[in-house]
Amino acid sequence: MSWALFAVQVICLLASTTLVSCRKTGKIIVLDDSNWKNSLKGQWMIKFYAPWCPACRANEEDYKAFSDWSEDLQINVAMIDITKEAGLSGRFMVTALPSFYFGKDGEFWRYNGLRTADAMHDYVEGELWKNNEPVWWVRHPDSIQMTMMSWLFKTSVIMKNVHDSLTENYGLSTWVSYAIFGVGTIITGLVLGLLLVCITDFISPSKPTRRPPKATEGPFHVPEDLKTNAEEEEKSRKEKRARESEEEDTGDEGSAVATDDEVERASQHSQESMNGSQASSRASQEWETIHALEVADAEHDSDEPDTQVRQRKNVPASQTADADTKEAGDGAKTE
Q1: In this structure, are strands 76-81 and 99-104 parallel, antiparallel, or unpaired?
Q2: What is the pTM of this model?
Q3: Quick one: which of 98, 32, 35 has its CA closest to 62?
Q4: Domain 9-146: top CATH class
């Protein structure tokens, strides 16, 4: 009985030791362009590194120790080599090495804490990632713009490999390789431009232009729609000309009436001016006649009393002239 009890205790001890070792044992997942979308589900800690990076090599032991607790923390621990997966480095916009990202159900947070295993363990277990904002949707690895950025990074790697192959395997100089890339860039731009023009013309085709037939092809046949448009335009031009002529006639009549009124007013004004000038000239002549008579009376009839002269001053010129003529006749008879 005691032996049986001892055997049971030994088995339980071995089982517990095995379970503990299984919980602490984990493995680091290697992500590439074919399986990186697995990180959009569940919890992930992703490390971006390069074999030539000293800081990345210094963190290897701590990161491996952290991966031993992956099952306990229910998290997947992964690594991405940017020298082999340039597209993924473009998706996550990796600008420093090593870089760490924590992901949970499709959302990602940049881990900027200490690179020790304990610090990463506390970050995941204490859910410290909730204190920070996740990656902006514009820079989300699964967005369209970051997918295009991934293609750009892949293209740059391909161009670098081609350049290395031209200079190392084929023995071409660096400047010849640059010239080949320049010509290739121009040709690629022309092809893309032509493709863009074709797509634009397909989406929004230009309207076809109608060319009239030549004189040698026979009588010119005007389509019905063009004929209708021409008739409508001719009709509208005639109506416009008629309105303009009516406006001109109305304006001429108004101007003519205005001219007659102005002429009549001008004639009245001139007649009044002439009458005034004639009256002024008559008055001037009368005063000149009176003055001449006064001078004549003063010279020839100095013996005439002053009273008569003063009386004659108040007599009109015509009466004074008649009186003088009568007096002169009487004087002649007396003589």
Answers
A1: unpaired
A2: 0.50
A3: 98
A4: alpha beta
